[in-house]
């Protein structure tokens, strides 16, 4: 099974204020800060990583926080909703918590037979808590206020909004090995049996939906997981031979990546498990220091001077 796409690796979104983003995901949602680094293409901007204790693939949500960024508009050609798996019976805790902390949320509803609780982060990013049909047994990160009985387990699914389901579905099925599990109206659920969690891609087909506009509160890209670089490059050949433009291999310090834009417009990444988040700090110290890629280390003083304070 390891020579296949192993579900989701990470999802990357755009935020406005870095401090507000950090406070929400650490102090409200109860995730762990895994890495505090910078955008490789814009070192004056943070790249913040959140996830479980060790940064396991399928739990990693990352942000580019641009101070003063305009609010984006979710739409066609974007990932528009991120679903986190939570235990059965946890919604009362989360609704009470969201109400007390002034988090916008909707009343529980249902999607594909599973209970969901939709909410938004301070920039309007659309998120969902999902009680999976089968209990998710991944070990959660716990905090003083969010214990294991209610904590998120990692990704359940991500929703793509598209004008036409067929070209994107062909990438998922013919290249990535997903299968159509179910359709409900204009919603399509695709799943891989290569892994048991973070395995679902939902597509919402809206033919007349306007194209999404990037900005704070929108998703930048979604990344699919492979075991190592050998398998990564095998997928490079598969994607390229399908006629899609794909990048060369890129070293992201904690994983190696390829990027391509699927026919519906969503930016897809394929990322490796290796080398992981323990490469530059011990696991018990993850997220405690500003870590720079080697090419920027000589400019640390200048970079630290322009980055917002996150105390």
Task: Walk me through what this model shows.
It is a single chain. By secondary structure, this protein is of the alpha+beta class. It has one domain: 2,3-Dihydroxybiphenyl 1,2-Dioxygenase, domain 1. The strands form 2 sheets. The chain has an 8-stranded mixed sheet with strand order 2-3-4-1-13-16-15-14. An 8-stranded mixed sheet has the order 6-7-8-5-9-12-11-10, covered by helices on one side.
Quick recap of the structure?
With 311 residues, this protein is of the alpha+beta class. Helix content is 17%, strand content 34%. It has a single domain (8-306), classed as Roll (2,3-Dihydroxybiphenyl 1,2-Dioxygenase, domain 1).
Any descriptors?
311 residues, 8-stranded mixed sheet, 2,3-Dihydroxybiphenyl 1,2-Dioxygenase, domain 1
Topology summary:
Blueprint: E1 8-15, H1 18-28, E2 32-39, E3 42-51, E4 60-65, E5 78-85, H2 91-100, E6 109-111, E7 114-120, E8 126-131, E9 155-162, H3 165-175, E10 179-184, E11 187-191, E12 200-205, E13 219-226, H4 229-241, E14 250-251, E15 255-261, E16 267-275, H5 300-306
Parallel strand pairs: 1-4, 5-8, 9-12, 13-16
Antiparallel strand pairs: 1-13, 2-3, 3-4, 5-9, 6-7, 7-8, 10-11, 11-12, 14-15, 15-16
* Overall CATH class: Alpha Beta
- Mean pLDDT over all positions: 97
Number of strands: 16
Shape descriptor:
globular
Largest sheet: 8 strands, mixed
CATH topology: 2,3-Dihydroxybiphenyl 1,2-Dioxygenase, domain 1
Strand residue content? 25-35%
Q: Structural class, judged by helices and strands?
A: alpha+beta
What is the helix content?
A: 10-25%
Looking at the overall shape, the CATH architecture is: Roll
Low-confidence stretches: none
